[in-house]
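Our platform keeps sequence and structure together, in a single record for each protein. This encoding replaces a full spatial description with a residue-level series of whole-number codes. We quote a single record here, exactly as it is kept in our systems:
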Amino acid sequence: RADSRSVYLLLIIYAASTATTTLPCLMIIVTTPLTSAETIAANIPSITSAQRLFLLASYIPFFLIPLGMTLDMAYRILNIMNASNAVQHTAKTK
């Protein structure tokens, strides 16, 4: 089924895990110094601007898409829980 609610929990686990493990990779890319005469002379690991841009372009989709999936699944699960609570509340008041 296209809208099977049974996979929502699995999707939120996968998406949240993927987004949270990709974020440290992005932070390393952003905080790695750019190659300069100083970094070369001091033998400090560094990357060029082109390398940083390529890496960011490669990693950002693996962060943003799962982050969007996490938010979407959280919203869907919240709606299911709210609907269930409303049904339980209605059943108790009868």
